[in-house]
Queue: 2 jobs
Job 1
Amino acid sequence: MKAKATAALLPLLLAAPCIAQAPDAPTVTVPSETVPGVPAAVVPSSPADMPTLPQSGKPTTPQVRSKFSVLMDAESGQIIWARNPDVRRSIASTTKILTAILLIERGHDYDIVTAPPEVKGIPDSSLHLVPGETIPLRDMLYALLLRSANDTAVAGADYIAGSIPAFADLMNQKAAEIGTKNSHFVTPNGLYDPNHYSTAADMGLIARYAVTHLPEFNEIVKTQTYTVARSINRRDAVVKNTATTYLKRFPGADGIKTGYIRQAGHCFVGSATRKDWRLIAVVLNSGSCREDAESLLNYGFANFVRVPAVYQGDVVGTASVESGSAPVNVIAAQNLSIVTSRFRAMPAIQKRFIPSAVLPPAPVAAGTKVGTVQVLINGKVVASEDAVTASQVALRPALVWMRKGRAAGITFTYWLGGLCGAVALFALAKGIYARTFTKSHGGSRDRLAAEVRGVDND
């Protein structure tokens, strides 16, 4: 009943543009572009069908000093507000979000990490690790994300990849998988390197991946203090979150990471959740980064609303897999929402199914990913989700018989070959035996004949 009621209200809720452009926000982007040549189903059929959502009060604007900032919906990755989101910047210790992703995905909580020689002399902040000191990976993650310990990032890189350059390769691979477009990573801790950079939009995507895929990451970044287990220097074991003020004072605050080096300025990736809706704010190079992030998050919650666009299980298209008995319905793997303004009218929403470049051959199980479902506004992709098969796809009947015949033929050939081999082996053995028997008996007859004739047989 609840889902039906929400669906009935959808035309009323879809009342304003999903991307707000404040007077001081000249640049706005969305996660990806329209794919040419792919038809899209428009819902509803005309912008005129969408009345303005009644809303008391007036829209507000965020007060942001940073020139490089983004406000993003954590569920869909939709950018709600942005200023210079794709400008490459040094990002300081916000780098450690990506480092933590790799440590969590490639390591195990209670693996014991040994500090390599490279931890010696790394500038603060640090856990003051001593080469050879051991620490559980889980505790090292707390030191990495709460105290922002630069030496733990180096220890983690050595533990995962054997060296910092090898770990940096993994960072760049993972960032590309997440969908970043303007990032390159050289260090695991964000200490300055001219070839180490990212953008507000890319850092939003990396943070979104961490909070939507890794429960352990969420648990750590909302923690205010933690006592680390370590083998040396045990008096320096309590780590405090560098974002404690934000976590204590801002309603709904639940992470994520601060950062500072001189070349990057103060940076902050912050998130907050209210009424089960999580937003992510990225602020780079700001003297008031926490205040900027709080202003962005308050702006998002006050001026926008999350609207269901696709429900889990909705049919979004059909797909024909290789050798399949028939086309199969394709459904959304999860609910998919968009974010829209509470105050202004908006054009129509479009939904479309994009098949994967390579589809799996039949037989295919139900729930197999075969593409993505996208939601577009003004021709721009604002949200996407996996699209999966609604049911099993059986092999085409003729191919089933062919495969059975091929299997039977292979079995018959195998046994025939075995039989022929056995016959050949028997014939060979028989021939060898016959020759040996004949030779031995022939020799006896020759000797007997020689003795009768009185001839020396030597």
Note: The longest strand covers residues 265-274.
Job 2
Amino acid sequence: MQKALFIRAEWDDEASVWVATSDDVPGLATEADTLEALSAKLESLVPELLEANGCPNVGDVPFELLARKYAIAHGIGFSPITGVRFPVDQKIKSRHTANAVLRQAGLPKGF
């Protein structure tokens, strides 16, 4: 069985695309709007690049696509009971404040 090639996909927030590169596939640098589109693109592009780099009789080429996206989770609360989203004070120090947050979410007091 042929060893799978390793391909990295990283989210480019500025361009709003996934960018694929690989040390295993010389010259690989491509992008797509979604991971699914990127994977489909790689299925045809990887064998073409390997052949262009002098690999004879490439055939089927297994590859592993590892995606990474850096993001920041903001302090927004969500009540699954009421469906209400609300800002959460990250410095809650008293039960009164906690109960106020619960009221905002439409939930009964809990503290």
Note: DSSP finds two helices and six strands in the chain.
